[in-house]
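ARCHIVE CARD
SHELF: 3
SLOT: left
DATA:
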Amino acid sequence: MDHSVDLTEAEAQSGYDSVEQNNISVYRRVLPAVVNITSNAVAYDWFWGAVPQQGQGSGFIVDTHGHILTNYHVIEGGRQIEVTLSNKHKYKAQVVLTDKPHDLALLQIDAPNLTPAVLSNSQNLQVGQKVYAIGNPFGLSGTMTTGIISALRSVRGPEGNLIENAIQTDAAINPGNSGGPLLNSHGEVIGINSLIATNPNEQIEQSAGIGFAIPINTAKAVLEDFAHYGRIRRPSLGITSLPIGPDLAQQMGLAADYGVLIQRVLPGGAAERAGLHGGDKQAYLGNTPIYLGGDLIIGIDGREVTTGQDISQIMDEHKTGDKVAVTFLRGQRKMTAQVTLEEAGTRTA
């Protein structure tokens, strides 16, 4: 019996097409900036016995001084945090800054010859753009996946926080990818991979083709505050608000079919000091109480405002103490007020 097998072999290594060449180039260029983060914490059982716990995530180097960006939920509760570089060297990390509302954390290691990632601008991202995710899903270090920007939308993060202008992508993101970079086709960071949508009927969290990343501009604003003040000082108008669309505008009898309706101005806050008004008549939107009669913000510094996301994006471009021109409708009157931005979280309604 003839047991030979006739194989057809390639004469030489086939070349890579332009797409493959770019994939390889991005991976090789960015991989040295991507790190694996291990967070060791201690929980307690019913008998108050200590139970060690370990979590894993990703992060990326942002400067040669050893600063590393990641998600807050990656290191939350960690007593010891260890960073493993792409060259397999391990370093103890210090937590320099945490920003739980934005699910961000800044770590620092003492290591030589670091390669920082290049941070892009996430302001003008477009659905359909090609993206790459590099991280350590399920502890598999240096894993790269590709996809596109599927949508730009606000979502709730793992801590219940609102992620404004989150980047939705179909690039495979799994547990362990959190904190790693989402990259554009040039290998520049446009976002920080943070969470995935999962099937509630599945017991294991894994990619369902819907992942979300925090826009890098949000992180850059945090880093700028840290550089100037040693802490986070995010600017705010000092209001609570309700986005308005055509249907709501018609029901409420508003003079414009878009904008952000001020619900409350925080006492002594930026908006109140500038003369802006909140609502004074309670009503209900479904089961949610709202207030009518407040000013309707339609623009800031000449830019149209249609949602709270627009305001958040403009705030990310400013600092506490900056002045902005807020255009609003009070009844049928179009007005403008100069508002000096205050530090977010310094007042409550």
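SLOT: right
DATA:
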Amino acid sequence: MRSLHKLFRSVVIFVVVALTVPCGSELLLSARSPRQSAAGQKGSGKGVVNWPRFRGPDCNPVSDHPRLPVRWSKTENIEWVADVPGVGWSSPVVWGKRIFMTAATSNQPMKQPMLGTDYSNDYLAELRAQGLSTEEINKRLYARDREMPHELEISLMLYCYDLESGKKLWERQVYHGNPHGGRHSKNSHASETPVTDGKRVYVYFTDYGLYAYDFSGKQVWAMALGRHETWRDWGTGASPALHGDRLFVQNDNEQQPFLAAFDTRTGKELWRKPRNLGASRKTGWSTPFVWENGLRTEVVTIGPGAAVSYGLDGNELWRMKRMAQGTVIQSPFAWNNLLFLTSGTPGESTRPIAAVRAGGSGDITPTEPDNRNEHVVWYDRLAGGTYLPTPVIYGNALYAVNDKGIISRHNAATGERAYRTRISAEASTFTASPWAYNGKVFVLSEEGDTFVVDATEEFKLLGVNPLGEFSMASPAIVGDRLLIRTQNHLYSIRNRR
């Protein structure tokens, strides 16, 4: 894989894993007050009991379980390894002893990802240097880096595994046929992470619909949803968010972006609100976040150019502009009664991180030079730009890692930066979001190496845990287990007793 990195250091593609992405709060504890940890069980020493959505119960993936593994490899601290058929970059979600994941399978070859986020742009530059016409350039670019509906048939799958053994308990085919839309080879047709409330697992394939299954694999309901064009056929990746008996989906597309709510019991659409954010590019891959902040419950979204918060009835509460205009993948999350917003790529002129207080209304955009106001605690126009990974907050510090392996640490309450550095000369391409526990921050590269960073004021790389398999999905943390999904496998990583 090292040689691949040098060969393919590479555009343009975002990688949603959603991205991609569910961030909300329902039956489990959420970021409601300073007394609660992001694991939902501060000081319990038992870690996180369930991992019901992308990035965990509060969309801030940390734990306090003392026996969680710090070191692993293919021969060390591996409890079990399960095969995962197909292509999918959704994260595993867990409730009780059940693990749920999605994937797209096909009897025909599916285009595979390369390392990094520049390989399409590099190829584009190469084609332009040959003096080819725009039509021919697009034809060749699509032939290599896109997978279009006429090229193959797929099956969209939901898998259920046993947490203790890794045995596949059942699988369900949600859809079979030609894809409804195209995808970039770095994306998948199954990048949206499912969400569960402990009674049902809710599966969202943006171009297809919403589906509910019980834990035995019986479909409870299905709600078909129409397809919408995405920017240059990059595909989809925003995951659903869950609150009580409502599911929220954010579909930022090139035709008509919207936020919609659905009844978890029946799949009935409760409301749909068009989103007009003002940016020329409308497509986004950010997952909405349900923020229970002590004053009220809000559905917070990030799209091209702006962050917008809605009430549970779909009415807009506030919006903050001065967000990235281009690629928006990172998702909102909360800590200590503050909301954190970030978006953009390393090359964008506006790529902020912002901390927001509850209670805002109307336009809360901060202005220069103060970059703060009654509702915005701090705003740093250049602190974000992680492209793919969403930051993590651990021990009062915010850690942001970009797709090229640059890590920064900020005081979460003030925004003050402690350091910004490259993780390692070997740390080159990143999609998964970082996570933290036991005084350490963990960062998984696309090459399957997890870099272990000391969670202190000064940067210190403690070690590297290799798996040697292509990896883009953000992991799950349950009890004393770490679950990492690679291109073809699911690993349960656990200290040997």
